[in-house]
Amino acid sequence: MFKQVSELSMAQTDEGSPTAVAAGSAPGESGVFVLSARFKGGLHISATPRRDYVVAHLDEPIAVGALAKIAGRSPFHFTRVFNRSVGMTPYRYVVHLRLRRALELVRDGRHGLAEIAAITGFADQSHLSRWIRRVHGVPPTELAAL
Predict the structure, then answer these.
(1) Residues in Cβ contact with 129 at an 8 Å cutoff, skipping those fewer than 6 apart
(2) 100: Cβ contacts below 8 Å, ≥ 6 apart
(3) Which terminal CB of the chain, N or C, has fewer other CB atoms within 10 Å?
(4) φ/ψ (deg, to 5) at 40
(5) Can you tell me the distance from the alpha carbon of 58 to that of 61, in angstroms, rounded to the nearest whole number?
(6) DSSP assignment letter at 2
């Protein structure tokens, strides 16, 4: 998986399952990847650079291919392993992070919904509103009051 591994150690997760932690680099990339023994070939997203990459590029379109390249896997295999490990597709995970950031901005009250949609990578205000209603069951204005 890695061309160069500088450190490999074993740890236990909170649930007690063993986890291998590899710090190294693939061609042109560096970072920490955590391979969970809970799922054969699974990825543990909390300690990977993918989350940092997504958060840093929320306002841009994020392709599964870019995330797969960071993980050193093909897009098809990355999607399967990601879904198995995290419990949602990479696209849904990106939307989840965008919604979390959008809700922070809505509750802050300094920006309008159209500006929040642009900051968080949604196509427009309507796209943001539909996702908020789909996930939380209320319109964005009601979430701002909470």
Answers:
(1) 113, 139, 140
(2) none
(3) C
(4) -60, 115
(5) 8
(6) -
pLDDT tens for the 146 residues of the chain, in order: 333 333 333 344 444 444 433 333 333 444 444 444 444 556 654 445 568 888 899 999 999 999 988 888 899 999 999 898 889 999 999 999 999 999 999 989 899 999 999 999 999 999 999 999 999 999 988 887 76
Are the beta carbons of 116 and 106 closer than 8 angstroms?
Answer: yes
68, with CB counted inside 10 A (0-12, 13-18, 19+), is buried
- Tokens representing residue 20 in the block: 């291998």
